[in-house]
């Protein structure tokens, strides 16, 4: 049992250290921020799916470009 827990901890640590996972978390944070802003404007919770679709169609490309530029510097 202890070995299985250790393996899970190692796998979790490895996942958290990957660039792909860090980028996923950063993008998710932007989507949640967009959800909050748009929900405030609408006066209701617009939901994650609507926020995701809206953010991807309007902001994802420029956000990724800006993020890549900041990571290169």
Structural features, described:
This protein has four helices and no strands. The longest helix is centred in the middle third of the chain and has 24 residues, at 19-42. The protein has one domain (2-72). The mean pLDDT is 89. The radius of gyration is 17 Å and the shape is flat. It has helices at 2-17, 19-42, 48-58, 60-72. The chain has 73 residues and is mainly alpha-helical. Helix 2 packs across helix 3.
Write the layout of secondary structure elements.
Blueprint: H1 2-17, H2 19-42, H3 48-58, H4 60-72
Helix pairs in contact: 2-3
Give a summary of the structure in a few sentences.
By secondary structure, the chain is mostly helical. Helices cover 88% and strands 0% of the residues.
Intertermini distance: 45 Å
- Relative helix content: over 70%
Q: Report the strand count.
A: 0
Beta-strand residue fraction: under 5%
Helix-strand topology string = HHHH
The poorly predicted ranges are: none
Evaluate the radius of gyration: 17 Å
**Major sheet characteristics:** none
**C-alpha geometry:** flat
Average pLDDT level? 89
What characteristics describe this protein?
88% helix; 73 residues; flat; 4 helices; mainly alpha
């Amino acid at each position: 049992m202890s070995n299985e827990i250790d393996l899970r901890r190692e796998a979790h640590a490895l996942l958290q250290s990957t660039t792909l996972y860090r980028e996923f978390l950063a993008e998710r944070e932007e989507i949640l921020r967009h959800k909050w802003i748009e929900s405030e404007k609408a006066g209701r919770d617009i939901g994650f799916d609507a926020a995701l679709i809206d953010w991807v169609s309007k902001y994802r490309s420029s956000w990724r470009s800006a993020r890549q530029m900041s990571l290169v510097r």
